[in-house]
Amino acid sequence: MAGTGLGSAGLDLEKLRMAGAGLALAVLTSGGDAQGMNAAVRAVTRMGIYIGAKVFLIYEGYEGLVEGEENIKQANWLSVSNIIQLGGTIIGSARCKAFTTREGRLKAAYNLVQHGITNLCVIGGDGSLTGANIFRTEWGGLLEELVKEEKITEEVSKKYSHLNIVGLVGSIDNDFCGTDMTIGTDSALHRIMEVIDAITTTAQSHQRTFVLEVMGRHCGYLALVSALASGADWLFIPESPPEDGWEDFMCERLGEARSRGSRLNIIIIAEGAIDRNGKPITSNYVKDLVVKRLGFDTRVTVLGHVQRGGTPSAFDRVLSSKMGMEAVMALLEATPDTPACVVSLSGNQSVRLPLMECVQVTKDVQKAMDEKRFDEAIQLRGRSFENNWNIYKLLAHQKPAQDKSNFSIAILNVGAPAAGMNAAVRSAVRIGICQGHTMYVVNDGFEGLSKGQIREVGWHDVAGWLGRGGSMLGTKRTLPKTCMEKIVENVRKFNIQALLVVGGFEAYEGVLQLVEARGQYDELCIIMCVIPATISNNVPGTDFSLGSDTAVNAAMESCDRIKQSASGTKRRVFIVETMGGYCGYLSTVTGIAVGADAAYVYEDPFTIHDLKANVEHLTDKMKTDIQRGLVLRNEKCHDHYTTEFLYNLYSSEGKGIFDCRINVLGHLQQGGAPTPFDRNYGTKLGVKAVLWMSEKLKETYRKGRVFANSADSACVIGLRRKTVSFSPVTELKKVTDFEHRLPKEQWWLNLRLMLKMLAHYQISLTEYVSGKMEHVTRRTLSIEKGF
């Protein structure tokens, strides 16, 4: 790490504080607001104070930077308390004409120098970030001019000779190239899916067609992902205009859907939708077309600014917190020679990207669209955009299979219900049918397989499953070893050549038992795949299991309400128990999303000394203006320090200072409609799993039958860093702790540093891994990243 003389081996808190002591940094939000900006402002402020820097908040974006005075205020730790759950930006944002002129930037430079600020963190869209970069390149010249005008002295200009800039992309459109997800995108998808779910019920009552217009003037990301997550009948995005004559095509398809018994049609259109000639396609044009040609009762709903509003989703809160923390590190390590960077996430790892490289590719997309090079525009958006587009086209409309294959695949759900299971089953069934396979579904897990509760399904049998929570097939925790003979008998009877098991730890353990029984039963020498689906996120072989995003959001919403009740009654500490078995993922991530004071988990062992420190920490907190506390406890984090024990301890130690209440969240964490992430993730896992199984079936088909007994014929599909990988269950056995039903290594443990830092604990950051600088070019965007 150049610039600060910090060894990259680790960041000792003392060294950090010495490096940070002379720093003054400012944070501003600019451009259109996005949910999660407050979480980012909070993380930048607290991380800045944590490393010993002075932190300033700039109100009203660049306008406040130009106006100065009251708009630039120094922040303390409590300035950003209780804002993580608020939408929008508490420091305000404004579109600013003055900053686009040199004299505006001259005023801005003067205001920063007055406060000794030479580090700027800008949270905004591509326009705001480009503006920041111009400001940085002009900085030297602006200071010279201020010296000439005798507004500042030569010494001052030498002292503040260089401006460091770091950007965080806040934009609900996700239109910034090179970054996986921008702040606000996931929350905007939450708003859109809430509306689609609500509209679906009324459309079904009246057999209506709905045209939904979502935001995205130049970028179709929101439209694309919400179409994929809702199974919309037709989609218009700017990057890929429909072929000429699309009107006939579309009406024919909508008519077909109705004649097959569907009671509604959903058409999603991005506000920037255009045809092949660059002429806008409006939602009203589409509506009139459907009414005129098909006579369907049709309504238009324009979502508008609803999409920018509301509370940020858990993903946006955690993303923004991580990015805010990394932004401060990037400023700390910046030198006059490092390019201005944006902080982004790649998989679950922070990275830094040169700002101007991202801006360049973002401009290239627009240029490609203007010049009608649409295929290229989709490629430049990055691999995951292209993936989404291809999968949407595959699943939206049944194409008859070229020819029937001889293979049959059975799908079952195992373990506890998790949101997104149904999305995975739906896409697996449909892709299987496209491939020409016979698709069976099994009710009630391995038990149902042993009892012969198996039936063949068609394309339309899974319509409408995407948004349904829980498990439509029914799920059981029974393991195969209790009924092995009968399972084998049914595999033989139905001639099942592949098993797709969607479920939690039992699904993985069950498939392992089947594989280990292959020596006894030839019938089990078939292809098997596990799609990890559990709210606990404790299946080895993947960073995320299906359903954990929905569960974190459910727990977070409950904690938001609990926190609100605590601010009404002063000096109260809530102890909240979460699910997750021995796995602390749910409580840790929920803790970050709600700004908890502590989260007790099994993987991060704690003693009575730690509990004592936590109680003292809360006692100190009660002496400030923030008179409430929130402590999360994972259900199996400790044999003896139970929720009841914590309650008694906190109550007696806090006597006269605060009182305590218990909340056990229970099964609400398993319920609810799946979040956009889980609908999409389930859809993609279903597709990728069946495509992998099809390949394996062909490879192992000999002499009229499938015979698969190699390790790689039974795998867990998962997302690792950013790539989809298939890990043999026999390999994963080595890295599994079966007693506690956990993978031995878990990536999310490094999130706990952030949880503790943001809760104001004095911890060392030696474990903190700084993001590396990565370049963004046409080539890097085309790399297959799984999602």
From TrEMBL:
Residues 25-330, 409-692 form the Phosphofructokinase domain. It is found in: Cytoplasm. Pathway: Carbohydrate degradation; glycolysis; D-glyceraldehyde 3-phosphate and glycerone phosphate from D-glucose: step 3/4. Beta-D-fructose 2,6-bisphosphate binds at residues 477, 534-538, 572, 579-581, 635, 661, 667-670, 741. One of its GO terms (molecular function) is fructose binding. Keywords: Acetylation, Allosteric enzyme, ATP-binding, Cytoplasm, Glycolysis, Glycoprotein, Kinase, Magnesium, Metal-binding, Nucleotide-binding, Phosphoprotein, Transferase. One of its GO terms (biological process) is canonical glycolysis. Mg(2+) binds at residue 126. Its EC number is 2.7.1.11. Allosterically activated by ADP, AMP, or fructose 2,6-bisphosphate, and allosterically inhibited by ATP or citrate. InterPro entries: 6-Pfructokinase_euk, ATP_PFK, PFK_vert-type, Phosphofructokinase_CS, Phosphofructokinase_dom, PKF_sf. Its cofactor is Mg(2+). The active site is at residue 173. Residues 408-787 are annotated as: C-terminal regulatory PFK domain 2. Residues 1-397 are annotated as: N-terminal catalytic PFK domain 1. It catalyses: beta-D-fructose 6-phosphate + ATP = beta-D-fructose 1,6-bisphosphate + ADP + H(+). It comes from the Eukaryota. Homo- and heterotetramers. Catalyzes the phosphorylation of D-fructose 6-phosphate to fructose 1,6-bisphosphate by ATP, the first committing step of glycolysis. Negatively regulates the phagocyte oxidative burst in response to bacterial infection by controlling cellular NADPH biosynthesis and NADPH oxidase-derived reactive oxygen species. Upon macrophage activation, drives the metabolic switch toward glycolysis, thus preventing glucose turnover that produces NADPH via pentose phosphate pathway. NCBIfam families: 6PF1K_euk. This is ATP-dependent 6-phosphofructokinase. The lineage of its organism: Eukaryota, Metazoa, Chordata, Craniata, Vertebrata.
